[in-house]
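Work package 3, deliverable 3.1, input record:
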Amino acid sequence: MTAAIPDGEILVGIYRRMTRIKQNDERFRAVLKSGKLVMPYYSPRGQEVIPSAVSACLDDEDYICTIYRGVHDMIAKGIPLNDLWAEFGGRATGTCKGKGGPMHVTHPATGVMVTTGIVGSSMPIANGLALAAQIRGEKRVSVAYFGDGASNIGAFHEALNMASVWKLPVIFVCQNNGYGEHTKYANSTAVANIAQRAASYSMPGITVDGNDPVATYRAAREAVDRARQGLGPSLIEAKTFRFHGHVFGDADAYMDKGEKDAWIAKDPVPLFRNWLIATGLASEDQLATLEAAIELEIDEAVEFTLNSPYPDLAELRRDIYKDEVNV
Amino acid sequence: MNQPAKINSIQAINQALDDAMAADVNVIVLGEDVGDKEEGGIVGVTRGLSSKYGDARVRSTPISEQAIIGAAIGAAIVGMRPVAEIMLMNFTTVAMDMIVNHAAKLRFMSGGQTHVPMVIRTMTGAGFGTGGQHADYLEAWFAHTAGIKVVAPSSPADAYGLMLSAIEDDDPVLFIENMPTYWTPGPAPERGVKIPLGKASVLREGTDVTLISYSRRVLDCCAVAEKLAAEGISAEVIDLRTISPLDTETFLASVAKTGRAVIVHEAVKPFGVGAEIASLIYESLYGQLKAPVQRVGSNYAPVPFSKPLEDAHVPSLEQIEVAVRATFK
């Protein structure tokens, strides 16, 4: 691992993704509150750094599999906002014609291959994507995002073992936000750090501060390079916190008093912004311009969504099989 | 290539996999013990394939059913055509999330952007004293799930032709092989000839009663039909071949002709495929039936071990015969 700070362009790129996630999340919650859109929404606010740093190491053709709390992973991977928002709005113009929704977004053009609503299920499928790349001799890698809760489900262990035995080009990225739904990490998980579990599967496992863009980038860089070189899988545990609980409307009664506020006080997005400016890697003007452009893009995506039609009811019979169903 | 006149289902499925792998580099095989180092499967269905096509395309896996199906799904959505083996049908239960929530639904949930052209091969069937967790017929669960096809051949030649179609199909297919009849020889298939999915076969034409079945119990229906023919009862035997999508047209046409229907399967009777077929018959042909539809299935219990219990658990020729006679009362 190189100790040097990554290139300024890479770091600004990570910030661009982070603020894009934050700004979209803020708008999603505002629109939900307004009642203009209705959906199950799992805010990723607070977890912006992880997919932003990981995606800085990925190309469009690299694959990701993510989970119900995965909008940040999709945005970081580059999914177009109009298509994303329209899918979240259940519109015909969405990535999946409105048939998947927030928990099941797919967008192959940006490598968003599967979004699952089932805890732990991103990993076995990411293996399959990696297996295809390996058999075909392609250089692409596959990332499985999942939460800390998912490391206690059997699929995690099956997937890591198989990936290691077959040396698959896959990176397992655990976004450890300290809670599985409402249950605290320590009450559900027998190891201090999920990265320890990598040892059982003879793969590198690293625990990083998932709110530190530089540390997370370095860990991702090493794991992605390793996978691309055919050296096999890695497990990255990135520690973080979700600012808005499990699902939109979460009352946070299961959290310790002050716990959330303490994390919000260390909000990684403004912290990184200030750091970029303080180190001279970016100027206030540059970042403000970038943020304003994203805001306009979101305005357009919301407008696009609200003006888009709902899917035709004939869609109920389509895409079940290749041929339309007539039962 | 010279073909013997008769082959068994193990040879037939092996030949189908071999032909499919030769024709398309995207066809891969994965599952427990499928490679030749592991003897090419516990009954040898995949024997010879890894030696011929290499360990990259024919992969013995850990005993990890979720990981096996997950790997097949991921590979399938990017264009490979995996044939994943879940050794025994009861073991699909530990991969139900991957099969039901993912393989079956990804085409729909992605709005058609991705699809899962994979085959899940699995074997089952009572008769070998394997008891309660190695012999169940669970096809109704999968047929109840939109997005996955369910195929259950009754002969080596059908197994060959249906397997070729299953591999070529753009949707996930659960392919159910009957273990006790694996070694039963039948006429060899014509190489390269596919049997379409979703089309039933009229194995025996008749005018008085329609026997509808699939997988191993088709053989029993044919035996009963043969016996009853001696008494002047003309039974038509329909082998569904594919359970989902169901070829309703073929059995409705037959029952419209005979006015009598008996459905036979090895799965337990309550809530089984027979119930769906009986409903479809009633919905379309209520006024034309000469007798209530009869269903024959296994006893509503886990498959027992002890031989007399196991024998009594599954549908017998006598039970099928009694059910047929009941339609003439």
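The radius of gyration of chain B is 19 Å.
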